[in-house]
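Standup notes, structure subgroup. Blocker cleared on the zinc ion input:
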Amino acid sequence: MVYFPEIECINSSNPANSTINKWIKQASGDIQNNTKLSKKMKEYLVAQLENIKVDSPTSILLWRAKIISYLDDVWDVMGDPIFDVDECDDAVAYFYPKSFKQNRQCIYCLKIYNDNDELQVHINDNCNILSIIDQATP
Ligand SMILES: [Zn+2]
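Run returned:
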């Protein structure tokens, strides 16, 4: 399993470029070889990896958050979703850092909080990455 770089790497801009580029290469190869993913899902993920803009930590986090948000909500449609839910879970795993702190870390901007209450306040009111995505989707 290839994990997404840790938030510290993303936030320190020069190392982020090489770390992110290394991750893109590893993730692309791993996705192609992942027998649990459909051809359609592999094509979607590889297209996303080819589309990343590595010009700033914010652009990396925004890019990542859009993919996570899309894969989390893909089932929420009329009729048959294009990807199945289990496959989305397998796919989305590539976009989480190894040390991701469930219930303490924002899934969108990857900021870490002391507890789940602080995290919920952040997600409801203060996540700049989430607010940009919400503005972009109708
Ligand atoms: Zn956030």
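Discussed briefly. The mean pLDDT is 91.
Next: hand off to the docking folks.
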